[in-house]
Amino acid sequence: MDILISNSGGQPIYEQICTQIKKNIIAGELKEGDALPSIRSLAKDLRISVITTKRAYDELEKEGFIYTIASKGCFVAKKDMEFIREENLKKIEAHMREISELARSSGLTGKDLAKMFQFLEEE
């Protein structure tokens, strides 16, 4: 499992770890029951604090992507694709609200936004 960390972006490191592990789980690259690297080894590999790695794993566990077995480590939880889909839809809706507000303040119409989105999809 490759995780790439960027210090130049505005996203906190623990969120970058969470996002990348989630993507691997959703894409099927990490399967139910697969072991994740230990908190300490991931922190060492990424050259970050153990606290940061722990926070990422805690977030993933809270969201139901992984589970922990004491003295054994963290493992990929069974995927509830409907739950994951609903969570993603909520995030998309929130982003769309922001886009709508920004578009309105810039004088853009829904048709303008649709054209922009279509252009992005073609890239």
Q: How would you characterize this protein structure?
A:
InterPro entries: Tscrpt_reg_HTH_GntR (IPR000524), WH-like_DNA-bd_sf (IPR036388), WH_DNA-bd_sf (IPR036390). It holds the Pfam family GntR. Keywords: DNA-binding, Transcription, Transcription regulation. GO terms for molecular function: DNA binding; DNA-binding transcription factor activity. Residues 11-79 form the HTH gntR-type domain. The protein is mainly alpha-helical and 123 residues long. It folds into two domains: 13-76, Arc Repressor Mutant, subunit A; 81-122. 59% of the residues lie in helices and 7% in strands. It has five helices and two strands. It has helices at 13-26, 39-46, 50-62, 81-105, 110-122; strands at residues 66-69, 73-76. The chain has a two-stranded antiparallel ribbon with strand order 1-2. A hairpin with a 3-residue loop joins strand 1 and strand 2 (73-76). Helix 1 crosses helix 3 (50-62) and helix 2 crosses helix 3. The radius of gyration is 18 Å and the shape is elongated. It starts with 12 loop residues before the first helix and ends with a helix. 14% of the residues are buried. The mean pLDDT is 92.
